[in-house]
Structure formats: structure tokens, C-alpha cells
């Protein structure tokens, strides 16, 4: 009886230590962040915001109509992202349908040749993922969302999104192969894990 | 009893009539320049799997089994082929954008691993579409290799 008791204590402690490891690192980081914040009290941006690598948008000469369409695409993308973060497949369907319709009416004649090339590299793929998301269950939606994110990331880097976008990465999704997404907030809200692990992931860079 | 007879006759006549529903034919014996074999290296083992297990619905060339000549099976089959080709057509793979080619390969690998492809109904009807673990492994390796080539920007023409 004693033996069983000790063995189970041992197992429990190993499990706890293993589970805590990742949290501990996070806590340590957070702790550092907190002290940094205190150091830089009174400044408008906190240390962490400043620590994020900034990527400048490639084209500043984008036609206003195109810019508006790209912003729309990104807004619909964020709609899908937030829906998935809330485990809401039906809402993701709405967002992806809206994205499909925006993709269908973009006026490609307004791009410069170089811009058009970038857009067309992603267009076909993006349309396909939007279509799939609009007619599948949430796990499959997430698979396509991971590929869609790569496309939207390419567009955001080229044309901007009308706002600061954060490029986040989750190392665990898809058997630890990992996946990226874009977010309008610095706070991590994981669209791949949803309510299971909403905080999993880290900010890689911001696009401005 | 008379009602029953009428129903049976009615069904028989219907069965004869539906045989006249127009059928699409998905047959092309030409290998187009956009065919995957003209764009990326496809090893013989992989080609054999693609021919047996994929091309009936995912290329411009379907091998029609005997039951395909009987309605309503043909309608189902035609539908499958339209959907399949829209999703992925190996005969037109070269016309896809690099990004889509790259992602299609990923989906091919995932469908094989998850067992969603070839379709279960198709596997039941086609013994040669049931892949062995070894065959799956060969295709998965080819998927990975080809994706790496796409990332490096190498296609068959540039190799």
C-alpha cells in the first residue's frame, strides 16, 4: 500500500513538473516583462511592444481602391480568425464567404505589374481556402486557415492592412509542425487550439 | 396486387428511360504540357499509385468500370469526376500557381495519412486503389521531396 502511494506521488510530481515547465518559462518571461514595464513607466509603448520586430509594408504607392479591397480581405480574414479562436465554425463560414465575394470583385487593372504578380501568386490559393472554410467542419477549417494565413501574410506584407497586424506563431498545431496567423491585437488568441489553449503562441513580428 | 404490378412496371420503364440521360466522357489520351509529369519528377512507383488510385477522378483520363455504363451509377460517377477535378487535376497541375501546387501536395499527403483519400466508396469498388503502407510511404516521401523542390524554386524544366 505504501509503495503504491509513493509511486503515485512520484508519477504525479513528474507529470506536474513536466506540465509546469512550459508555464514556468512563461511566468519567468512575464515576470521580466512586468519589471520592464515598471522600469519604463510613463512611456506610451510598453517594452514588449517595442521589442517586437517591425516589418515595413513593401508598397506605399497602392491605388486607394486596391488598398480598400485588401483591407476588406484582411478584415474578413480577421473575422475568420476570431471565429476560430472562439471555436465558432458557423461564424468562420460567414467570414470566409465575405472574403470570397471581396476576392471576386477586386479590380486587378489597378495594380502595378509588380504588385499584380504578388497578388496573383496568392489569389487562386486564397480563393480555394476561403471556399473550403465556407463548407467544412471546424478541424478542416483550421487546416485551410493555416494555409490561408500564409497567403494573407504575403498580401499584408506587400500592401498593408490599414492597421498594425501582428504575425503570431503556434508551435503545437498539426503535430508540432506549427502554424502562423495574423492578429489585430498584441494579445495571443490562438485560432488553432481555440478554447483548449487560447494563449498558446507567440508574437513573431508586427507589420506596419 | 394490381397496384403493386403497376408500380413494378413503372419502375422498370423508369430504369430503361434513365439509361438515355446524357453522359459526360472524361477521356483524353494526350498528356498535356500542364500535366504534373511534365512539371515535376514523378518516380515510377508513385506514378503507378497515381494511375491506379487517383487519376480516375483527378485527371483528364478516367478508366470507366463496367457499372459506369449503367444509370444511375454513371450520374454519381460523373459528379465525382467533376468535383474531383475541380479540387485537384493532375493533368492541369502545371497551370496552378506555385503556392497552390505547394499546398495541393500538402493536402495530398494529409488525405493519404488521414485515409480520406482515395474515397472509401471508391476503395470498396476498386481493389487496386487500396494502398499498402509501403506505397503510402513512397507517395508521402515524394510529396515531401517535391514540396522542397517548389520551395527552392526548382521544377522539372530547371533541374
Percent range of helical residues of chain B: 55-70%
What ranges of chain A have pLDDT less than 50 throughout 5 or more consecutive residues?
Answer: 7-47
Radius of gyration of chain A: 21 Å
- The oligomeric status of these chains comes to heterodimer
Give a short account of the largest sheet of chain B.
none
Would you tell me the structural class of the helices and strands of chain A? alpha+beta
Beta-strand content of chain A: 5-15%
- Individual helix count of chain B: 6
Structural class of chain B: mainly alpha
Give the overall shape of chain B, derived from the CA principal axes.
Answer: elongated
| Count of β-strands of chain A | 4
Poorly predicted parts of chain B: none
Distance between the termini of chain B: 74 Å
Summarize the helix and strand pattern of chain A as letters.
HHEHHHHEHEE
What share of the residues of chain B does DSSP label as strand, in percent? under 5%
The description of the largest β-sheet of chain A is: 4 strands, mixed
Mean pLDDT across the residues of chain A is 78
Termini separation of chain A: 63 Å
- Give helix and strand order of chain B, one letter per element, not per position: HHHHHH
Shape of chain A: globular
